Amino acid sequence: MDIASVIGLILAMGLILGSIAMGNAPFAAFIDVPSGLVVIGGAFAAALIAFPLKSMLKSPKIALKVILNKGEDRLGLIKQIVDLAETARRDGLLALESKVGEIDNPLVKTGIQMAVDGSTPEVVEEVLRTETEAIAVRHKEGKGIMDQLGRFAPAYGMIGTLMGLIMMLQDMSDPSGIGAGMAVALITTMYGAIVANVFFCPFAEKLGLISRNEMVSLEIAIRGVMAIQSGESPRAIDQKLKTFLPPSQRGEE
Amino acid sequence: MDIASVIGLILAMGLILGSIAMGNAPFAAFIDVPSGLVVIGGAFAAALIAFPLKSMLKSPKIALKVILNKGEDRLGLIKQIVDLAETARRDGLLALESKVGEIDNPLVKTGIQMAVDGSTPEVVEEVLRTETEAIAVRHKEGKGIMDQLGRFAPAYGMIGTLMGLIMMLQDMSDPSGIGAGMAVALITTMYGAIVANVFFCPFAEKLGLISRNEMVSLEIAIRGVMAIQSGESPRAIDQKLKTFLPPSQRGEE
Amino acid sequence: MDIASVIGLILAMGLILGSIAMGNAPFAAFIDVPSGLVVIGGAFAAALIAFPLKSMLKSPKIALKVILNKGEDRLGLIKQIVDLAETARRDGLLALESKVGEIDNPLVKTGIQMAVDGSTPEVVEEVLRTETEAIAVRHKEGKGIMDQLGRFAPAYGMIGTLMGLIMMLQDMSDPSGIGAGMAVALITTMYGAIVANVFFCPFAEKLGLISRNEMVSLEIAIRGVMAIQSGESPRAIDQKLKTFLPPSQRGEE
Amino acid sequence: MDIASVIGLILAMGLILGSIAMGNAPFAAFIDVPSGLVVIGGAFAAALIAFPLKSMLKSPKIALKVILNKGEDRLGLIKQIVDLAETARRDGLLALESKVGEIDNPLVKTGIQMAVDGSTPEVVEEVLRTETEAIAVRHKEGKGIMDQLGRFAPAYGMIGTLMGLIMMLQDMSDPSGIGAGMAVALITTMYGAIVANVFFCPFAEKLGLISRNEMVSLEIAIRGVMAIQSGESPRAIDQKLKTFLPPSQRGEE
Amino acid sequence: MDIASVIGLILAMGLILGSIAMGNAPFAAFIDVPSGLVVIGGAFAAALIAFPLKSMLKSPKIALKVILNKGEDRLGLIKQIVDLAETARRDGLLALESKVGEIDNPLVKTGIQMAVDGSTPEVVEEVLRTETEAIAVRHKEGKGIMDQLGRFAPAYGMIGTLMGLIMMLQDMSDPSGIGAGMAVALITTMYGAIVANVFFCPFAEKLGLISRNEMVSLEIAIRGVMAIQSGESPRAIDQKLKTFLPPSQRGEE
């Protein structure tokens, strides 16, 4: 679980709810179901137009990734690659066949399997790079959904507020109702700003970061497989791959 | 038919119409024909200035693509390429001549025809890549029209609202008319926001996505043709091209 | 003449003037000479600061290009290149010397002249590419002027409106004048929005499109010259260059 | 200490506080603790959702970097590289082993150590480039946090203002309270604009500049190490690396 | 002196001052010293935080460059390079030694000096390219300062207006003062818009253009030096370098 994201979500919602509680208006003044429907429903409807149904159905899972992601265990990945390199050095590339089942990282698994099967380094690299690109495309779509939700939510908030203002302006016979009418109209803009800035925009940012981190791990995996196949020494591989770690993590041999 | 886009469109319009129905203002309060003309007519006029007539006339067809696109059948494309590779392996490249007529994908068709006619791999690749670029340019123009409509609609909405406000401010002798005048002025901004956020902007996003997907299929087609021409084994081609599929789809042999 | 741009301009202006005519305020209410001077004069002044005098003096001619451009005759260009290739094939490269005078396209002319004069293919390509880049830079500056005018017009519109509001707020002794004062203040913002969205922004878009189209023709010209110089067969050149055409145009042999 | 940043901070805060002091409203009118909590707390909460806890905890240190950075001593770095090159020229590459301990720049240190240990130039360059990329990624994240804070602060300012307006509009029974209610509502927007434009946005800009400067020093270090390893003459190295300095600094031999 | 920039500046200021003179409010209504301090002082303070003191101190000189730049004399530069090429052709590369002192362009000077001193073409090009990159970085920083001033000026304008509104709303006991209070509050936003759109934004645009032009001249210089060193004929060099000129300037032999 990504503790920072959880704390951030609780803090953002707590600040907003706390501010309302500290004010002298009742909570009910901030609740308007049709406004909520226009903002959230509208943003999802616009995203549904723009993205495939399959991707949209996966979007709650993608959003959960922000909260549940555990970070990349790059040190473990490098350790496993170096282990494989040692086996390959000692017993030959074919000796890795028996170890393929134990490999966690799917890219390393595919690469080692192909190397054992006798694919040339060029073909192995091409396959792994295409795979990486495909993963990048999937990530980009996930982030894109959040980006669009964060862009459409305030837009539908503004549409709702305009509708509310037009309704209010139609009937100004009772001046005492103007304030309340305008308050309701503004709620939609507020909802749009809240869902965009508490959920969609920070979530999109985080998904971008998670993706960039995963891309680095995939790069480590590709370079590791290529180095094993070209018979580099485990020590050289370890040194080369550890440059991807922050200095503080490198000491842990 | 792209069910997600249809649901999204119905949902977005339903939410907006439903909100109006739930309010206490009559529907008529939200209808103003001159405002609609300024927003939609203005956005199309600006797009007509910016794009060729031929492209503008195709824009309804392009917009329909958002609703009617069926998605790429990449698995079928790969299967067909692997079939061709098997024939080429068994009976030689020239044996593909009789099969050219059955090929659906125009890029594969062109490529195989050229290979059979004896063009060198470099020439075949150059022709296919130029073709792909030209398709990308056409897609970009289609998306560009939607992008510009989505940008000009709110701009003309604002122009209409400013005109309405100036009219209203000219004649403030009857204070009871101010509210109604302002309501009418705001309708143009609301129309601009609605057509941009229900139609043009999500449509532009979707066209970008459809284009990116088609580009991947074109890349599969090019790599497939190149692999057939260089005589790679059908199994290797299958493995290489399937890296373009999401893992879940790869199992289906 | 680019009929779409002309129709678009007439339509956009017609919609705006028609809306005013349909309203109940007199035309005079929308005319304010100082506002017009601040918006249009201000935008041109800012562009004068940002661009060389020479480029600014050419800007009306550039703007006219949007209306007068006839589109690229790529089919004719390809035909001429294939004709040259046939002559070169039949009678040798030097036989093209007598035909140089008939070549319309300046890039093809320069390239063929250089090839006849004995320049190496590398030098010919370098010269043609540098020329193309220089044309791209000139186009970019033309589009840049329109972009900046489209950005400064609304900015000076806002400056004018702020000046008008400050004037109005200085003297609120006569409440009946407030409405008219505010109307005049808003006219500047409206002018800025109109000139940006009817003229400058769509013009900038169109200039970008015209430039991209011309770049494709220049690419056809360069590839054609290179192919002629390297002695490719007219048929291969025809096929290669026609990939730059939309499929519908290719059939016309 | 970066004197410019400190002066800038004091000047910006002084101008804002001075303007308030010169006005006729008491200081207390500009202080509202819940508004401050919503803006600053909200911006940090949104950043917490978007960035890892570890990076967020480092953000105060990163912000201090803006004030404490001393600038790059490129002249000293070049001098040290040229010294190493002279030793290598005179006594051989292995003679650098004893000098590794004295090298300040970690990249030069790593590179020389690897060269002495017998790594090939290709491997040395790959390791140093990967290291540089990793540093660039860390810098980008630091700047990214400031960028997001500078984007979320005004957003939460707007959310706070909308909440304040809704509260105020709920209760318009006492007209004399409307002004004060609206003033409080606007404070949140003002806080958001101030923290974004006095702190987060200029800090993000400065971090980008510091990073670009450091990248140039890293490039000098890499090129220096590569030149030493390939045995270039100290004079040539000095001349080559000094092109990275502004002309005014080059004279100092 | 760049006459266009001077005319533009006078025109922009004249239009703004003329509009005020034509209105019925006294000039004094548009002057508010604290507002000016907040906008201009605030923008410079934010830039001071973001840029090194040394760069900020050079910013007035950079701003003057917009007015004083004379444009590039590319024709003269090409003529000088062709002259040098003729000497080198006739009397050998070493004969250029005596001419180095007469060369105006610092890049050509450095390059010819290095060529005469016996540096290889690769080294000469590397040094000249690094130098060019360093100049590009310095230009970018100059433009960056103007960009940031043009971004911060309106931001501090808004901060000033919010402060003014809060002050005004605190004390609404005297309704007749509301208009004047609001007018003063709006002056800050107007100042921000004026300094950004009359000075900083057009200046940043112009600096970008001047830099791009200078980059082309540097490219001419580098290609000229490389061509001289590789012994190309003066006529070929002339033809190659003149492709960087607009066609109208090429005729002047």
UniProtKB/TrEMBL annotation, chains A, B, C, D, E:
<feature type="transmembrane region" description="Helical">
    <location>
        <begin position="149"/>
        <end position="169"/>
    </location>
</feature>
<dbReference type="GO" id="GO:0006935">
    <property type="term" value="P:chemotaxis"/>
</dbReference>
<protein>
    <submittedName>
        <fullName>Chemotaxis protein PomA</fullName>
    </submittedName>
</protein>
<feature type="transmembrane region" description="Helical">
    <location>
        <begin position="181"/>
        <end position="203"/>
    </location>
</feature>
<dbReference type="InterPro" id="IPR002898">
    <property type="entry name" value="MotA_ExbB_proton_chnl"/>
</dbReference>
<dbReference type="Pfam" id="PF01618">
    <property type="entry name" value="MotA_ExbB"/>
</dbReference>
<dbReference type="InterPro" id="IPR000540">
    <property type="entry name" value="Flag_MotA_CS"/>
</dbReference>
<comment type="similarity">
    <text>Belongs to the MotA family.</text>
</comment>
<keyword id="KW-0283">Flagellar rotation</keyword>
<keyword id="KW-1003">Cell membrane</keyword>
<keyword id="KW-0812">Transmembrane</keyword>
<keyword id="KW-0813">Transport</keyword>
<dbReference type="GO" id="GO:0071978">
    <property type="term" value="P:bacterial-type flagellum-dependent swarming motility"/>
</dbReference>
<keyword id="KW-1133">Transmembrane helix</keyword>
<feature type="transmembrane region" description="Helical">
    <location>
        <begin position="33"/>
        <end position="53"/>
    </location>
</feature>
<feature type="domain" description="MotA/TolQ/ExbB proton channel">
    <location>
        <begin position="102"/>
        <end position="218"/>
    </location>
</feature>
<dbReference type="GO" id="GO:0005886">
    <property type="term" value="C:plasma membrane"/>
</dbReference>
<keyword id="KW-0472">Membrane</keyword>
<dbReference type="InterPro" id="IPR047055">
    <property type="entry name" value="MotA-like"/>
</dbReference>
